[in-house]
Specification:
By secondary structure, the chain is α/β, with parallel strands linked by helices. It has eight helices and nine strands. The longest helix is centred in the middle third of the chain and has 18 residues. It is globular. The structure holds zinc ion (ZN) (2 copies).
Length: 274
């Protein structure tokens, strides 16, 4: 059983209104013993598709976030172990700002995510204009590789196939074999640096998608290449989704060969049986 959700958003993320306290309560009720808040920080987010999203839209007040985290963690002490994390949006031109941010705060966990590739977010339909879905996916894996070559101060790579969530066709099966070369390079780099690969369950609980992000074939490949460090995250933006689809995700991870998962504290992994 997975006892730790390590990808959760609260109202400190610009796209979320949920209270930290309610998240902690729901996590306890779901039987989790540990939860890491991982609020969005995307420097210079491109407001291409929605002019209300200013470039600093996804830049939280991290001091306010940390202060509230400390009080909520103390309130729930002894019932659930709450941790302080960040989901950092990578783009090549903000690598230095990301480095500075990570060094300035006492994070337990830093997730690196690609939410923007070539100045567009695959969440929005404009990302797919003039591109087939295959071309769009190719862009994502190229950009992911380029970004993690440039920036390495993170613990976990988040939702490796993020764009699969938002493909216009909404298909239930996406073959990632055509991108194998870049995906292998990404996995090898993570393994070499002892960084974790996240198993993100959002599509499983949100739309009954049959795979985690990344899917089982990529998890098996990561294992085959020697990768052993995985984390689980629901990517919940509402308290009642915390720990969503964890039983199914654990089964997929076991099938891919994993026997344990990592839980981060002060940016160090501790391992627990799957
Ligand atoms: Zn994300
Ligand atoms: Zn997230």
């Amino acid at each position: 059983m997975i006892l730790a959700d390590q990808h959760v958003h609260s109202h400190h993320s610009a796209d979320c209104k949920e209270s930290m306290d309610r998240i902690a309560v729901c996590a306890e009720e779901a039987g989790l013993t540990s939860l890491c808040f991982t609020e969005h920080n995307d420097f210079d987010y491109p407001p291409v598709d929605n002019k209300d999203l200013t470039p600093d839209f996804f830049e939280p007040d991290i001091t306010a976030y940390h202060d509230e985290y400390l009080s909520i963690a103390a309130r729930h002490a002894g019932r659930i172990d709450l941790r302080f994390g960040i989901e950092l949006g990578l783009q090549q031109h903000v690598a230095d700002r990301n480095r500075a941010l990570v060094s300035e705060h006492p994070f337990d966990l830093v997730i690196a995510s690609i939410h923007v590739a070539r100045r567009r977010d695959p969440y929005f339909p404009s990302f797919y204009e003039g591109r087939t879905e295959e071309e769009a996916l190719a862009v994502i894996f190229e950009e992911t590789l380029e970004n993690i070559r440039l920036f390495d101060d993170f613990d976990v790579l988040g939702h490796l196939d993020y764009a699969v969530r938002y493909l216009p066709s909404r298909r239930q099966r996406v073959d990632l074999t055509p991108y194998r070369e870049n995906i292998d390079e990404i996995l090898r780099l993570l393994i070499r640096r002892e960084q974790a690969l996240e198993i993100n369950t959002q599509s499983m609980w949100k739309r009954q998608y049959p795979e985690t992000h990344p899917p089982r074939a990529v998890l098996a490949r990561y294992h085959e290449l020697g990768g052993r460090i995985i984390t689980f995250g629901s990517d919940a933006h509402q308290a009642d989704h915390v720990g969503g689809a964890f039983a199914g995700a654990a089964a997929i991870a076991r099938e891919a060969g994993f026997t344990e998962y990592a839980v981060y504290r002060a940016r160090r992994a501790e391992f627990y049986p799957l």
